[in-house]
Amino acid sequence: MNKIRIGIIGYGNLGKSVELGIRQNKDMELVGVFTRREPSTIKTLTEGVKAYSIDEAKNMTDQIDVMVLCGGSMSDMPVQGPLFAGMFNTVDGYDTHAKIPDYFDAVNKNALEAGKVCIISSGWDPGMFSLNRLYAEAILPEGNTYTFWGKGVSQGHSDAIRRIKGVKNAKQYTIPIENAIEAVKKGDSPELTAREKHRRECFVVAEEGADKTQIEHDIKTMPNYFSDYDTEVHFITEEELEKNHSGLPHGGLVIRHGKTGLKGENNHVIEYKLDLDSNPDFTANVLLAYARAAYRLNQEGVSGAKTVVDIAPAYLSNKSGEEIRKSIL
Amino acid sequence: MNKIRIGIIGYGNLGKSVELGIRQNKDMELVGVFTRREPSTIKTLTEGVKAYSIDEAKNMTDQIDVMVLCGGSMSDMPVQGPLFAGMFNTVDGYDTHAKIPDYFDAVNKNALEAGKVCIISSGWDPGMFSLNRLYAEAILPEGNTYTFWGKGVSQGHSDAIRRIKGVKNAKQYTIPIENAIEAVKKGDSPELTAREKHRRECFVVAEEGADKTQIEHDIKTMPNYFSDYDTEVHFITEEELEKNHSGLPHGGLVIRHGKTGLKGENNHVIEYKLDLDSNPDFTANVLLAYARAAYRLNQEGVSGAKTVVDIAPAYLSNKSGEEIRKSIL
To answer: Which of A45, A101, A137 comes nearest B326 by C-beta?
Structure first.
C-alpha cells in the first residue's frame, strides 16, 4: 500500500505534535517540515526527514499528498490557508470562529481551481465539538446546547498576562463551573453569563521587586480576558511554574438537553467530553484523521473547501467499509 | 418549502415515538402509518393521518419520501428491510450487531436496483455509539475503546424473566459498574469480563402462590442473560411496578483512552454519554435525522445501503452549509 505523504507547514507545538502523530498512523509518512526559520537550524524527530524553507513547498507538489497547516490563526492562516489550497490537499485548525465563513470562501476558491480538498477548522473546537453540537441539535430539535471549556491552559490568556508590566511568566487555566454543568444536565435551560460558566486561575511569576498588588489588579480588570470572570491570581516562582504548570492540558464538554414526548415529558442529555493531557497532541491527531479523509476524497475526484461536518465519518478510519460494519458498528 | 413526507412501518413503541418526533422537525410531515394489524383498530395521534394495511405501502411510493421502519430486528426487519428498500428511501434501527453485514448486503442490492438510499442500523447503539467508536479510534489510534450501557431497561432481559414459570410481570435494569468506568478513564486498559462491566437488577411481580426462591434461582442461573452477571432480584407488587418502573429509560457511554507523545506520556480520554428518559423517543429522533439525510442524498442522485458512518453530519441538519459554518462550527 502506498502511504499518504504528509507535509507540515510550521514547526511549533502543533507541528511537532503532528510529526509524532504520524507515527501512530501506519498508512502515513512524513515527507518534510516547512518553516519560515532558517531550515538548517531545525532538526526533526523523524529520521531522514528534513526541514525546508516554506518557499520550497511550491516545488514539491508532486511529493506531498496532504499538507497539514500548523501556523497561527491570527496572522499565518489567513495567508497560508488560501495559498496552499492552490497547491495541495490541506487540513488546518483555523479557530477564529467569527471569521470561519470568510476563510472558508477564500480557501474554497483556490481549492476548486486547483482541484484539491482542503478541510478547514478541524481539531476539537472548532472540530469535534462542532460535530457534537450539530449531531445533538439534529437529534434533539427541542433543547439547548452548551459548551464548556477546561480545565485547561488558555494560551491567549496566558500571553495576555505576560504582557502586563512586572510579569516575567504566567499560565492561565480556564475552569468550567460545576454548578452550571449540573443545571444544564438537569434541564433547567439556564441563561448563563460568562462568569457563571467559567472561572479563571492564574499562576504568575513576578519580576524582582514588581508590585504584585498592581499586577493582580491589572489582571482582574483586563477587559474581555478577565473582567467578566471570577479570577484567582497566585504568585509562584519560576521553578514552581516549570515544575507544576509546564504542560498544555485542556478539554471540555458539549452538552445538549432536550425534551421529547407528547407533552415534553421525557428528558434527554447528550454529553461529549474531552480530557486531554496535551492540547497540541490531540489537535494534531484530529488533523491527521482529517488528512486521511482529504486524501481519500480527493482520490475520488472531490475538490473544494470542507469542514468536519461535510466529511462522512468513514473517511477518517483506516478500516474498510466491511471492517467498520463488522467491528465498529 | 416542500416537507419531507414520512411513512411509518409498524406502530409499536418506536413507531409512536417516530410520530411524535416528526412534530419536532418543521421540515417533515407524516403521511401514513402502516400496520399488520387491522388498520381500522388504530387511531394515530396526528390529525388527518390514517393507518393503512402494510400491504398498501407498495401503492403509495409516489406519496412518501422516506419510510421509517419500526419493526423488530429479530423477525420483521430481515424481511421488511430488503422489501421496502426496493420501493422507498428507508431508515431503520436494525440492531442485531452480528448480522449487520448480511443485512447491509440484502438491503444494498434492492436499494441500488430501485435507486433509493437506505440507512440501516441507525439509533444509538448501533448508531451514535458506533459513530463515536469510529471517531475516537481514528483520533487516538493507540488506545482502547469501551462501551457501557445503562442505567436502563433491557427489553430482551425483561422478556426473558417474564417467560419464567410463576412470573406475572418484570422489568430488568442494566447498570454499568462505576469502578470499571473509572479504571477505563484512568487509562488502566483493563480486561473486563461481562460481570465486571455491568450488573443486573430485576423487579419481578410473582403470581399468587408462586415459589419466589425458585424464580430467583431461575433468573440468576439463566445462561447468556444472567448467569455471567451479578444479579439482584426484588419482588414487588404490580402496582409498584406500574408506578415506579413503567418507563423505558436507557443510556450509556462510549469511552476511549489513548496515549500520545514521544513515549506515550500524554493521556487522553474521549467520552460520549447518553442519559435518556425514553429509549424509543430518542431512537426515533435519531432515525428522523437520518431520514432527512436519506432524502437529501437521494435528491442528489445517491443510492444504495448506508450506515451512519457513511453520512456526512451536515446532511442531518436542517441548516444550510452557510448557517452551520456561522452558528455551529
So the answer is: A101
- Report how far residue B1's alpha carbon sits from residue A276's, in angstroms, rounded to the nearest whole number: 44
- Minimum CA–CA partner of B287 in chain A: A139
B128 shares contact with chain A (CB less than 8 Å): yes
Is B248 within 8 Å of chain A by CB?
Answer: no
pLDDT in tens, B231-253: 999 999 999 999 999 999 999 99
Using one digit for the tens of pLDDT, what is the confidence trace for A19-32? 999 999 999 999 99
Cα A224 to Cα A145: distance, rounded to the nearest angstrom: 23
Can you tell me the distance from the alpha carbon of B195 to that of A13, in angstroms, rounded to the nearest whole number? 43
Q: Name the DSSP letter for residue A207.
A: P
pLDDT at A1 over 90: no
| Alpha-carbon distance A245 to nearest alpha carbon in chain B (angstroms) | 15
Instruction: Mutate one of B125, B257, B263, B266 to test the A interface: name it (highest A CB count within 10 A).
Output: B266
How many angstroms separate the CA atoms of B175 and B148, rounded?
A: 9
Residues of chain A neighbouring B278 (CB-CB closer than 8 A): 260-261, 266, 268
**In the predicted model, is pLDDT for residue A18 greater than 90?**
yes
Q: Give me the residue label for grid cell 470568510.
A: A102
- The predicted structure's pLDDT at residue B137: 98
Find the closest chain B residue to A21 by CA distance: B260
Within 8 A of A281 by CB-CB distance, chain B residues are 260-261, 266, 268
Contact yes or no for A329 and B307 at CB 8 A: yes
Query: Which cell numbers hold the place of B54?
Result: 402494510
Q: What b/e string do you get for B90-124 counting C-beta neighbours within 10 Å, with b at 16 or more? A: bbbbbbebeebeebbebbbebbeebebbbbbbbbb
In whole angstroms, what is the distance from residue A285 CA to residue A17 CA?
8
3-state secondary structure of B247: coil
Instruction: Give strand pairing partners of B167.
Output: B206
Whether residues B271 and A272 touch (CB distance < 8 A) is answered with yes
- The CA angle A88-A91-A94, to the nearest 5 degrees, is 125
Q: Does A137 sit within 8 Å of B328, measured CB to CB?
A: yes
ipTM over 0.95: yes
- 8 Å CB contact of B313 and A317: no
- Residues of chain B found within 8 Å of residue A20, distances taken between Cβ atoms: 260-262
Contacts of A283 (CB under 8 A, 6+ apart): A14, A17, A93, A123, A124, A127
For the question of whether the overall pTM of this predicted structure is more than 0.90, the answer is yes
| pLDDT at residue A12, rounded to an integer | 95
| Cα–Cα distance measured from residue B33 to residue B51, given in angstroms and rounded to the nearest whole number | 5
Q: Could you give the CA distance from residue A257 to residue A185 in angstroms, rounded to a whole number? A: 6
